[in-house]
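Repro:
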Amino acid sequence: MNLFESLGLNENIVKSVEALGFTEPTAIQEKAIPILLSGTTDFVGLAQTGTGKTAAFGLPLLQLIQAADKFPQALIVCPTRELCLQITNDITTFAKFSKGMHIEAVYGGASIVMQIRNLKRGVQIVVATPGRLIDLIERKAIDLQKVKYVVLDEADEMLNMGFRDDIDFVLKNTINRESTWLFSATMPPEVRAISKNYMTQPKEITVGKKNSGNANIAHQYFVVPAQHRYEVLKRVIDFNPGMYGIIFTRTKADAQDIAEKLSRSGYDIEALHGDLTQQQRDKVMGRFRNKTLQLLIATDVAARGIDVDGITHVINFELPDDLEVYTHRSGRTARAGKSGICISICHSRELYKIRSIEKLINASFHKLDVPSGSDVCRKQFFHFMDKLNAVDISNGEYENYLPDLIKKFENVSKEEVLQRVAALEFNQFLKYYNNADDLNSKEIRIPRNESRETGGRRERGSYNRRDNGYTRLFINLGTKDGFYKASFLQFILDESNLNKEVLGKIDMRDMNTWVEVDQQNAGKMIKSLDGKKFNNRIIRMNEADGGFKRPSDEGRRQHSSQRKRAY
Protein backbone atom coordinates (compact mmCIF):
# COMPACT_ATOMS: atom_id res chain seq x y z
CA MET A 1 0.00 0.00 0.00
CA ASN A 2 1.21 3.48 -0.93
CA LEU A 3 1.95 5.51 2.20
CA PHE A 4 -0.33 8.32 1.02
CA GLU A 5 -3.15 5.79 0.64
CA SER A 6 -2.60 4.71 4.24
CA LEU A 7 -3.40 8.27 5.33
CA GLY A 8 -6.96 7.84 3.99
CA LEU A 9 -6.65 9.48 0.56
CA ASN A 10 -8.68 8.04 -2.32
CA GLU A 11 -7.35 6.25 -5.36
CA ASN A 12 -7.45 9.19 -7.79
CA ILE A 13 -5.53 11.50 -5.45
CA VAL A 14 -2.95 8.82 -4.66
CA LYS A 15 -2.56 8.24 -8.40
CA SER A 16 -1.80 11.94 -9.00
CA VAL A 17 0.71 11.99 -6.15
CA GLU A 18 2.46 8.92 -7.55
CA ALA A 19 2.57 10.55 -10.98
CA LEU A 20 4.50 13.41 -9.39
CA GLY A 21 7.04 10.95 -8.03
CA PHE A 22 6.10 11.30 -4.35
CA THR A 23 6.14 8.06 -2.39
CA GLU A 24 6.45 9.20 1.21
CA PRO A 25 4.54 12.03 2.91
CA THR A 26 6.47 14.75 4.74
CA ALA A 27 6.08 15.10 8.49
CA ILE A 28 3.40 17.80 8.26
CA GLN A 29 1.49 15.82 5.62
CA GLU A 30 1.60 12.63 7.66
CA LYS A 31 0.25 14.37 10.75
CA ALA A 32 -2.22 16.77 9.16
CA ILE A 33 -3.96 14.79 6.40
CA PRO A 34 -5.77 12.23 8.61
CA ILE A 35 -7.10 15.05 10.80
CA LEU A 36 -8.19 17.28 7.93
CA LEU A 37 -9.99 14.47 6.10
CA SER A 38 -12.67 14.58 8.82
CA GLY A 39 -13.66 17.99 7.45
CA THR A 40 -15.07 19.14 10.77
CA THR A 41 -11.99 19.76 12.90
CA ASP A 42 -10.38 23.19 13.21
CA PHE A 43 -6.66 22.86 12.70
CA VAL A 44 -3.41 24.75 13.37
CA GLY A 45 -0.29 23.49 11.58
CA LEU A 46 3.09 24.98 12.49
CA ALA A 47 5.83 24.14 10.05
CA GLN A 48 8.54 25.96 8.13
CA THR A 49 8.21 26.81 4.46
CA GLY A 50 9.33 24.07 2.13
CA THR A 51 7.90 21.25 4.28
CA GLY A 52 5.00 20.35 1.99
CA LYS A 53 2.20 22.38 3.55
CA THR A 54 0.34 22.90 0.26
CA ALA A 55 -0.18 19.16 -0.18
CA ALA A 56 -1.02 18.84 3.53
CA PHE A 57 -4.18 20.90 3.04
CA GLY A 58 -4.64 20.60 -0.76
CA LEU A 59 -5.01 16.82 -0.89
CA PRO A 60 -7.70 16.63 1.83
CA LEU A 61 -9.61 19.49 0.19
CA LEU A 62 -9.79 17.63 -3.11
CA GLN A 63 -11.24 14.60 -1.35
CA LEU A 64 -13.79 16.56 0.70
CA ILE A 65 -15.12 18.74 -2.10
CA GLN A 66 -18.08 17.72 -4.24
CA ALA A 67 -17.11 18.10 -7.89
CA ALA A 68 -20.76 18.17 -8.98
CA ASP A 69 -21.35 21.43 -7.05
CA LYS A 70 -20.08 24.34 -9.14
CA PHE A 71 -19.75 26.94 -6.41
CA PRO A 72 -16.92 27.84 -3.98
CA GLN A 73 -16.68 25.19 -1.29
CA ALA A 74 -13.13 25.90 -0.14
CA LEU A 75 -11.30 29.21 0.25
CA ILE A 76 -7.53 29.44 0.58
CA VAL A 77 -6.15 32.84 1.63
CA CYS A 78 -2.44 33.60 1.25
CA PRO A 79 -0.29 36.77 1.41
CA THR A 80 1.06 37.26 -2.12
CA ARG A 81 0.33 36.83 -5.80
CA GLU A 82 3.31 34.51 -6.26
CA LEU A 83 2.17 32.16 -3.51
CA CYS A 84 -1.43 32.35 -4.75
CA LEU A 85 -0.38 31.16 -8.20
CA GLN A 86 1.91 28.51 -6.79
CA ILE A 87 -0.83 27.01 -4.60
CA THR A 88 -3.27 27.07 -7.51
CA ASN A 89 -0.82 25.31 -9.81
CA ASP A 90 0.03 22.69 -7.16
CA ILE A 91 -3.60 21.83 -6.36
CA THR A 92 -4.47 21.76 -10.07
CA THR A 93 -1.68 19.20 -10.49
CA PHE A 94 -2.98 17.18 -7.52
CA ALA A 95 -6.43 17.16 -9.16
CA LYS A 96 -5.15 15.61 -12.40
CA PHE A 97 -7.27 12.47 -11.96
CA SER A 98 -10.12 14.13 -10.03
CA LYS A 99 -12.64 14.98 -12.76
CA GLY A 100 -14.65 18.17 -12.66
CA MET A 101 -12.43 20.08 -10.23
CA HIS A 102 -11.88 23.76 -10.95
CA ILE A 103 -9.46 25.93 -8.99
CA GLU A 104 -9.33 29.68 -9.53
CA ALA A 105 -6.65 32.13 -8.38
CA VAL A 106 -7.77 35.70 -7.59
CA TYR A 107 -5.12 38.32 -6.88
CA GLY A 108 -4.25 41.94 -7.47
CA GLY A 109 -2.29 43.08 -10.52
CA ALA A 110 -4.44 41.03 -12.93
CA SER A 111 -7.75 41.73 -14.66
CA ILE A 112 -10.56 41.57 -12.13
CA VAL A 113 -13.05 41.34 -15.00
CA MET A 114 -11.45 38.10 -16.20
CA GLN A 115 -11.37 36.72 -12.65
CA ILE A 116 -15.08 37.51 -12.17
CA ARG A 117 -15.85 35.79 -15.48
CA ASN A 118 -13.97 32.66 -14.42
CA LEU A 119 -15.74 32.60 -11.04
CA LYS A 120 -19.13 32.75 -12.76
CA ARG A 121 -18.27 29.68 -14.83
CA GLY A 122 -18.20 27.68 -11.62
CA VAL A 123 -15.29 26.79 -9.34
CA GLN A 124 -14.99 24.65 -6.23
CA ILE A 125 -11.75 26.04 -4.78
CA VAL A 126 -10.76 29.71 -4.68
CA VAL A 127 -7.18 30.72 -3.87
CA ALA A 128 -6.99 34.42 -3.04
CA THR A 129 -4.90 37.26 -1.73
CA PRO A 130 -6.76 39.31 0.93
CA GLY A 131 -7.08 42.59 -0.95
CA ARG A 132 -8.49 41.18 -4.18
CA LEU A 133 -10.82 38.82 -2.27
CA ILE A 134 -12.35 41.70 -0.31
CA ASP A 135 -12.72 43.67 -3.53
CA LEU A 136 -14.68 40.76 -5.04
CA ILE A 137 -16.82 40.42 -1.91
CA GLU A 138 -17.69 44.12 -1.94
CA ARG A 139 -18.59 43.88 -5.64
CA LYS A 140 -20.79 40.87 -4.80
CA ALA A 141 -18.82 38.97 -7.44
CA ILE A 142 -18.16 36.02 -5.17
CA ASP A 143 -20.52 34.20 -2.82
CA LEU A 144 -18.85 32.72 0.25
CA GLN A 145 -22.04 31.57 1.98
CA LYS A 146 -21.53 27.96 0.94
CA VAL A 147 -17.81 27.83 1.73
CA LYS A 148 -17.22 24.88 4.06
CA TYR A 149 -13.45 25.04 4.46
CA VAL A 150 -11.24 28.10 4.97
CA VAL A 151 -7.47 27.77 4.82
CA LEU A 152 -5.16 30.56 6.04
CA ASP A 153 -1.73 29.83 4.60
CA GLU A 154 1.38 31.68 5.81
CA ALA A 155 -0.78 33.33 8.46
CA ASP A 156 2.16 34.99 10.21
CA GLU A 157 3.28 36.62 6.96
CA MET A 158 -0.21 37.95 6.28
CA LEU A 159 -0.33 39.53 9.70
CA ASN A 160 3.18 40.98 9.31
CA MET A 161 2.01 42.58 6.07
CA GLY A 162 -0.89 44.28 7.84
CA PHE A 163 -3.78 42.03 6.72
CA ARG A 164 -5.30 41.47 10.17
CA ASP A 165 -8.48 43.46 9.42
CA ASP A 166 -8.80 41.71 6.06
CA ILE A 167 -8.58 38.27 7.67
CA ASP A 168 -11.22 39.28 10.23
CA PHE A 169 -13.47 40.46 7.40
CA VAL A 170 -13.07 37.22 5.45
CA LEU A 171 -13.73 34.99 8.46
CA LYS A 172 -16.81 37.01 9.37
CA ASN A 173 -18.12 36.49 5.83
CA THR A 174 -17.71 32.70 5.87
CA ILE A 175 -20.11 31.99 8.70
CA ASN A 176 -21.21 28.61 7.36
CA ARG A 177 -17.74 27.07 7.27
CA GLU A 178 -17.39 23.66 8.84
CA SER A 179 -13.72 24.02 9.68
CA THR A 180 -10.85 26.52 9.59
CA TRP A 181 -7.29 25.41 8.85
CA LEU A 182 -4.43 27.71 9.76
CA PHE A 183 -0.87 27.10 8.62
CA SER A 184 2.04 29.21 9.80
CA ALA A 185 5.83 29.07 10.16
CA THR A 186 5.73 30.86 13.51
CA MET A 187 3.15 31.41 16.27
CA PRO A 188 3.24 35.06 17.35
CA PRO A 189 0.44 36.42 19.58
CA GLU A 190 -1.47 37.79 16.58
CA VAL A 191 -1.76 34.32 15.02
CA ARG A 192 -2.75 32.86 18.39
CA ALA A 193 -5.49 35.51 18.64
CA ILE A 194 -7.04 34.40 15.32
CA SER A 195 -7.04 30.82 16.55
CA LYS A 196 -8.74 31.87 19.78
CA ASN A 197 -11.35 34.14 18.17
CA TYR A 198 -12.41 32.09 15.16
CA MET A 199 -11.64 28.45 15.89
CA THR A 200 -13.22 25.88 18.18
CA GLN A 201 -10.85 23.59 20.06
CA PRO A 202 -8.42 23.42 17.15
CA LYS A 203 -6.10 20.47 16.80
CA GLU A 204 -2.56 21.85 16.84
CA ILE A 205 0.34 20.08 15.14
CA THR A 206 3.92 21.29 15.27
CA VAL A 207 6.67 20.00 12.99
CA GLY A 208 9.95 20.93 14.63
CA LYS A 209 9.87 23.51 17.40
CA LYS A 210 7.63 26.54 17.43
CA ASN A 211 9.25 29.57 15.85
CA SER A 212 12.29 27.42 15.10
CA GLY A 213 14.31 27.49 11.94
CA ASN A 214 15.08 24.75 9.48
CA ALA A 215 17.71 22.38 10.92
CA ASN A 216 19.25 22.00 7.45
CA ILE A 217 20.27 25.66 7.29
CA ALA A 218 23.77 26.74 8.29
CA HIS A 219 23.60 30.23 9.83
CA GLN A 220 26.73 32.35 9.29
CA TYR A 221 27.60 36.00 9.82
CA PHE A 222 30.33 38.54 9.17
CA VAL A 223 31.03 41.59 11.32
CA VAL A 224 32.13 44.51 9.17
CA PRO A 225 32.08 48.32 9.14
CA ALA A 226 28.86 49.66 7.67
CA GLN A 227 30.66 51.39 4.80
CA HIS A 228 32.06 48.03 3.63
CA ARG A 229 28.76 46.15 3.33
CA TYR A 230 28.68 46.25 -0.46
CA GLU A 231 32.30 45.20 -0.89
CA VAL A 232 31.75 42.34 1.58
CA LEU A 233 28.63 41.26 -0.30
CA LYS A 234 30.58 41.17 -3.56
CA ARG A 235 33.36 39.21 -1.93
CA VAL A 236 30.93 36.69 -0.39
CA ILE A 237 29.37 36.11 -3.83
CA ASP A 238 32.80 35.67 -5.41
CA PHE A 239 33.83 33.25 -2.66
CA ASN A 240 30.82 31.05 -3.41
CA PRO A 241 30.99 30.29 -7.15
CA GLY A 242 27.92 28.48 -8.37
CA MET A 243 25.74 30.20 -5.80
CA TYR A 244 22.01 30.38 -6.62
CA GLY A 245 20.63 32.79 -4.10
CA ILE A 246 18.45 35.62 -2.83
CA ILE A 247 19.88 38.80 -1.27
CA PHE A 248 17.62 40.73 1.10
CA THR A 249 17.81 44.50 1.59
CA ARG A 250 15.85 46.88 3.76
CA THR A 251 14.86 49.37 1.05
CA LYS A 252 13.88 49.48 -2.59
CA ALA A 253 16.67 51.98 -3.22
CA ASP A 254 19.32 49.60 -1.85
CA ALA A 255 17.94 46.68 -3.87
CA GLN A 256 17.99 48.64 -7.12
CA ASP A 257 21.36 50.28 -6.46
CA ILE A 258 23.13 47.02 -5.58
CA ALA A 259 21.55 45.20 -8.53
CA GLU A 260 22.78 47.88 -10.93
CA LYS A 261 26.31 47.86 -9.48
CA LEU A 262 26.64 44.08 -9.60
CA SER A 263 25.07 43.90 -13.04
CA ARG A 264 27.62 46.40 -14.39
CA SER A 265 30.33 44.17 -12.91
CA GLY A 266 29.09 41.21 -14.92
CA TYR A 267 26.87 39.38 -12.40
CA ASP A 268 23.55 37.80 -13.42
CA ILE A 269 21.30 39.65 -11.00
CA GLU A 270 18.04 41.62 -10.98
CA ALA A 271 16.09 43.45 -8.31
CA LEU A 272 12.57 42.70 -7.11
CA HIS A 273 10.78 45.53 -5.33
CA GLY A 274 7.54 47.46 -5.07
CA ASP A 275 8.34 49.95 -7.85
CA LEU A 276 8.19 47.23 -10.51
CA THR A 277 5.03 46.64 -12.50
CA GLN A 278 3.43 43.22 -12.30
CA GLN A 279 4.72 42.45 -15.77
CA GLN A 280 8.25 43.35 -14.72
CA ARG A 281 7.94 41.22 -11.56
CA ASP A 282 6.75 38.25 -13.59
CA LYS A 283 9.66 38.63 -16.01
CA VAL A 284 12.23 38.80 -13.19
CA MET A 285 10.74 35.82 -11.35
CA GLY A 286 10.52 33.83 -14.57
CA ARG A 287 14.22 34.35 -15.23
CA PHE A 288 15.10 33.47 -11.64
CA ARG A 289 13.00 30.29 -11.63
CA ASN A 290 14.57 29.24 -14.93
CA LYS A 291 18.01 29.88 -13.42
CA THR A 292 18.99 32.32 -16.15
CA LEU A 293 19.55 34.63 -13.19
CA GLN A 294 22.13 33.58 -10.63
CA LEU A 295 21.01 36.09 -8.03
CA LEU A 296 17.82 37.87 -7.02
CA ILE A 297 17.92 40.90 -4.72
CA ALA A 298 14.67 41.83 -3.03
CA THR A 299 12.98 43.67 -0.19
CA ASP A 300 11.03 41.67 2.38
CA VAL A 301 7.68 42.87 1.10
CA ALA A 302 8.50 42.11 -2.54
CA ALA A 303 9.80 38.63 -1.67
CA ARG A 304 6.76 37.51 0.32
CA GLY A 305 5.58 34.12 -0.83
CA ILE A 306 8.50 33.42 -3.18
CA ASP A 307 8.92 29.66 -3.34
CA VAL A 308 11.77 28.55 -5.59
CA ASP A 309 13.47 25.17 -5.35
CA GLY A 310 17.22 24.77 -5.30
CA ILE A 311 18.22 28.06 -3.66
CA THR A 312 21.64 27.47 -2.12
CA HIS A 313 22.18 30.76 -0.29
CA VAL A 314 20.21 33.51 1.38
CA ILE A 315 22.20 36.67 2.11
CA ASN A 316 21.03 39.36 4.52
CA PHE A 317 22.64 42.58 3.33
CA GLU A 318 21.26 43.86 6.62
CA LEU A 319 19.50 42.03 9.42
CA PRO A 320 15.75 42.72 9.72
CA ASP A 321 14.48 44.71 12.70
CA ASP A 322 11.55 42.35 13.13
CA LEU A 323 13.52 39.27 14.10
CA GLU A 324 10.80 36.83 13.05
CA VAL A 325 11.32 38.08 9.49
CA TYR A 326 14.70 36.32 9.65
CA THR A 327 12.88 32.97 9.82
CA HIS A 328 11.03 33.76 6.61
CA ARG A 329 14.15 34.99 4.84
CA SER A 330 16.26 31.98 5.76
CA GLY A 331 13.38 29.64 4.90
CA ARG A 332 13.88 30.39 1.19
CA THR A 333 16.74 27.91 1.20
CA ALA A 334 17.06 24.29 2.40
CA ARG A 335 13.66 23.29 1.05
CA ALA A 336 12.37 19.76 0.54
CA GLY A 337 15.06 18.23 2.72
CA LYS A 338 18.01 19.94 1.02
CA SER A 339 20.68 21.90 2.87
CA GLY A 340 21.32 25.62 2.53
CA ILE A 341 23.28 28.55 3.92
CA CYS A 342 22.00 31.84 5.33
CA ILE A 343 24.67 34.56 5.53
CA SER A 344 24.22 37.86 7.40
CA ILE A 345 26.41 40.93 6.97
CA CYS A 346 26.38 42.71 10.33
CA HIS A 347 27.69 45.83 11.95
CA SER A 348 29.06 45.43 15.47
CA ARG A 349 26.03 47.30 16.80
CA GLU A 350 23.76 44.55 15.42
CA LEU A 351 25.32 41.66 17.33
CA TYR A 352 22.54 41.71 19.91
CA LYS A 353 20.19 40.73 17.08
CA ILE A 354 22.28 37.65 16.35
CA ARG A 355 21.91 36.45 19.93
CA SER A 356 18.17 37.19 19.88
CA ILE A 357 17.66 35.28 16.63
CA GLU A 358 19.66 32.35 17.99
CA LYS A 359 17.18 32.10 20.86
CA LEU A 360 14.20 32.58 18.57
CA ILE A 361 15.11 29.81 16.11
CA ASN A 362 17.03 27.63 18.56
CA ALA A 363 20.09 27.50 16.36
CA SER A 364 23.71 28.64 16.61
CA PHE A 365 25.30 31.20 14.33
CA HIS A 366 28.90 30.83 13.16
CA LYS A 367 31.03 33.94 12.89
CA LEU A 368 33.28 33.91 9.83
CA ASP A 369 36.12 36.10 8.70
CA VAL A 370 35.58 37.92 5.43
CA PRO A 371 37.65 36.04 2.84
CA SER A 372 40.81 37.75 1.73
CA GLY A 373 41.40 38.60 -1.91
CA SER A 374 43.77 35.63 -2.28
CA ASP A 375 41.19 33.32 -0.64
CA VAL A 376 38.59 34.38 -3.19
CA CYS A 377 40.98 33.91 -6.12
CA ARG A 378 41.99 30.47 -4.90
CA LYS A 379 38.35 29.40 -4.49
CA GLN A 380 37.43 30.67 -7.94
CA PHE A 381 40.48 29.03 -9.51
CA PHE A 382 39.74 25.59 -8.09
CA HIS A 383 36.08 25.94 -9.08
CA PHE A 384 37.19 26.70 -12.63
CA MET A 385 39.51 23.69 -12.65
CA ASP A 386 36.68 21.44 -11.47
CA LYS A 387 34.47 22.76 -14.27
CA LEU A 388 37.27 22.30 -16.80
CA ASN A 389 37.86 18.74 -15.65
CA ALA A 390 34.13 17.93 -15.80
CA VAL A 391 33.51 19.25 -19.34
CA ASP A 392 31.82 16.65 -21.51
CA ILE A 393 33.82 16.05 -24.71
CA SER A 394 32.23 12.75 -25.58
CA ASN A 395 30.16 13.89 -28.55
CA GLY A 396 33.16 13.39 -30.85
CA GLU A 397 32.94 16.68 -32.76
CA TYR A 398 36.07 18.01 -31.13
CA GLU A 399 38.13 15.17 -32.60
CA ASN A 400 37.92 16.88 -35.96
CA TYR A 401 39.78 19.88 -34.55
CA LEU A 402 42.27 17.94 -32.48
CA PRO A 403 45.00 17.61 -35.15
CA ASP A 404 44.95 21.38 -35.72
CA LEU A 405 45.07 22.02 -32.00
CA ILE A 406 48.01 19.68 -31.54
CA LYS A 407 49.89 21.32 -34.40
CA LYS A 408 49.08 24.81 -33.09
CA PHE A 409 50.47 24.04 -29.63
CA GLU A 410 53.20 21.54 -30.55
CA ASN A 411 55.88 23.83 -29.16
CA VAL A 412 53.92 24.71 -26.02
CA SER A 413 54.03 22.52 -22.90
CA LYS A 414 50.88 21.26 -21.21
CA GLU A 415 51.72 23.40 -18.19
CA GLU A 416 51.93 26.54 -20.33
CA VAL A 417 48.63 25.76 -22.05
CA LEU A 418 46.97 25.45 -18.68
CA GLN A 419 48.56 28.71 -17.55
CA ARG A 420 47.25 30.49 -20.64
CA VAL A 421 43.73 29.10 -20.11
CA ALA A 422 43.82 30.27 -16.50
CA ALA A 423 45.13 33.70 -17.50
CA LEU A 424 42.40 34.09 -20.10
CA GLU A 425 39.79 33.28 -17.50
CA PHE A 426 41.23 35.03 -14.46
CA ASN A 427 43.42 38.00 -15.47
CA GLN A 428 40.73 40.60 -14.75
CA PHE A 429 39.61 38.77 -11.65
CA LEU A 430 43.14 38.55 -10.21
CA LYS A 431 43.78 42.20 -11.01
CA TYR A 432 40.65 43.24 -9.09
CA TYR A 433 41.66 41.33 -5.95
CA ASN A 434 45.35 42.20 -6.09
CA ASN A 435 46.27 43.76 -2.73
CA ALA A 436 42.60 43.72 -1.66
CA ASP A 437 41.83 45.31 1.71
CA ASP A 438 41.06 43.36 4.89
CA LEU A 439 37.33 43.98 5.35
CA ASN A 440 36.97 42.40 8.77
CA SER A 441 35.84 44.47 11.73
CA LYS A 442 36.76 43.65 15.29
CA GLU A 443 33.73 42.26 17.08
CA ILE A 444 32.65 44.47 19.95
CA ARG A 445 31.35 42.41 22.84
CA ILE A 446 28.11 43.62 24.37
CA PRO A 447 27.96 43.42 28.16
CA ARG A 448 25.30 41.00 29.29
CA ASN A 449 23.68 43.61 31.50
CA GLU A 450 23.02 45.91 28.57
CA SER A 451 19.58 45.99 27.01
CA ARG A 452 19.43 43.60 24.04
CA GLU A 453 16.58 45.52 22.61
CA THR A 454 18.76 48.58 22.26
CA GLY A 455 21.90 46.65 21.39
CA GLY A 456 23.88 47.98 24.30
CA ARG A 457 22.79 51.55 23.78
CA ARG A 458 20.93 53.82 26.21
CA GLU A 459 18.42 52.13 28.48
CA ARG A 460 14.75 52.16 27.58
CA GLY A 461 12.95 54.99 29.26
CA SER A 462 15.45 57.70 28.42
CA TYR A 463 13.93 59.67 25.61
CA ASN A 464 16.27 62.61 25.53
CA ARG A 465 18.39 63.26 22.49
CA ARG A 466 21.39 61.00 22.58
CA ASP A 467 24.84 62.23 23.37
CA ASN A 468 26.15 60.35 20.33
CA GLY A 469 24.43 62.57 17.83
CA TYR A 470 20.87 61.28 17.39
CA THR A 471 17.73 63.42 17.30
CA ARG A 472 14.39 61.92 18.34
CA LEU A 473 11.57 62.55 15.86
CA PHE A 474 7.82 62.10 16.22
CA ILE A 475 5.56 60.80 13.44
CA ASN A 476 1.79 60.23 13.59
CA LEU A 477 1.91 56.70 12.11
CA GLY A 478 1.84 53.49 14.10
CA THR A 479 0.76 49.88 14.20
CA LYS A 480 -2.90 50.80 13.60
CA ASP A 481 -1.82 52.03 10.18
CA GLY A 482 -0.81 48.47 9.28
CA PHE A 483 2.89 48.91 10.08
CA TYR A 484 5.20 46.63 12.00
CA LYS A 485 8.74 47.70 12.75
CA ALA A 486 10.37 46.32 9.62
CA SER A 487 7.76 47.70 7.20
CA PHE A 488 7.76 51.09 8.97
CA LEU A 489 11.52 51.38 8.64
CA GLN A 490 11.38 50.45 5.00
CA PHE A 491 8.67 53.08 4.45
CA ILE A 492 10.53 56.01 6.03
CA LEU A 493 13.85 55.04 4.44
CA ASP A 494 12.25 54.74 1.01
CA GLU A 495 10.48 58.09 1.37
CA SER A 496 13.60 59.92 2.58
CA ASN A 497 16.08 58.00 0.38
CA LEU A 498 18.30 57.46 3.41
CA ASN A 499 20.04 54.27 4.52
CA LYS A 500 19.58 52.32 7.71
CA GLU A 501 22.80 53.56 9.33
CA VAL A 502 21.21 56.96 10.07
CA LEU A 503 18.60 55.38 12.37
CA GLY A 504 18.76 54.58 16.05
CA LYS A 505 16.04 53.34 18.38
CA ILE A 506 12.44 52.92 17.24
CA ASP A 507 9.51 53.18 19.65
CA MET A 508 6.24 52.18 17.94
CA ARG A 509 2.79 52.68 19.44
CA ASP A 510 -0.74 52.23 18.08
CA MET A 511 -1.11 55.71 16.60
CA ASN A 512 2.37 57.25 16.83
CA THR A 513 6.04 56.36 16.52
CA TRP A 514 9.23 57.91 17.82
CA VAL A 515 12.37 57.30 15.81
CA GLU A 516 15.97 58.36 16.43
CA VAL A 517 17.78 59.81 13.41
CA ASP A 518 21.33 61.13 13.36
CA GLN A 519 21.47 64.91 13.55
CA GLN A 520 22.90 65.36 10.07
CA ASN A 521 19.94 63.62 8.43
CA ALA A 522 17.05 64.51 10.76
CA GLY A 523 16.19 67.57 8.67
CA LYS A 524 16.07 65.56 5.46
CA MET A 525 13.84 62.95 7.11
CA ILE A 526 11.36 65.59 8.28
CA LYS A 527 11.38 67.41 4.96
CA SER A 528 10.72 64.15 3.09
CA LEU A 529 7.78 63.00 5.20
CA ASP A 530 6.12 65.95 6.93
CA GLY A 531 3.01 67.00 5.03
CA LYS A 532 2.91 63.95 2.75
CA LYS A 533 -0.16 61.70 2.64
CA PHE A 534 -0.51 58.08 3.74
CA ASN A 535 -3.88 56.40 3.17
CA ASN A 536 -5.45 59.84 2.64
CA ARG A 537 -4.10 61.06 6.00
CA ILE A 538 -1.61 63.92 6.36
CA ILE A 539 1.67 62.74 7.83
CA ARG A 540 2.99 64.89 10.67
CA MET A 541 6.66 64.51 11.49
CA ASN A 542 8.64 66.83 13.74
CA GLU A 543 11.29 66.94 16.39
CA ALA A 544 10.22 65.37 19.66
CA ASP A 545 12.97 66.43 22.05
CA GLY A 546 14.26 69.77 20.92
CA GLY A 547 17.74 70.66 19.75
CA PHE A 548 16.97 70.52 16.04
CA LYS A 549 15.68 73.18 13.71
CA ARG A 550 13.43 72.32 10.81
CA PRO A 551 14.67 73.41 7.41
CA SER A 552 11.90 76.00 7.27
CA ASP A 553 13.02 77.42 10.61
CA GLU A 554 16.62 78.10 9.58
CA GLY A 555 17.64 81.61 10.47
CA ARG A 556 15.24 81.80 13.37
CA ARG A 557 16.88 82.37 16.71
CA GLN A 558 14.19 80.72 18.80
CA HIS A 559 15.76 78.10 21.11
CA SER A 560 14.47 74.58 20.49
CA SER A 561 13.44 74.16 24.13
CA GLN A 562 10.83 76.88 23.67
CA ARG A 563 9.03 74.99 20.91
CA LYS A 564 5.93 72.99 21.59
CA ARG A 565 6.68 69.30 21.96
CA ALA A 566 4.89 66.79 19.77
CA TYR A 567 3.40 64.82 22.63
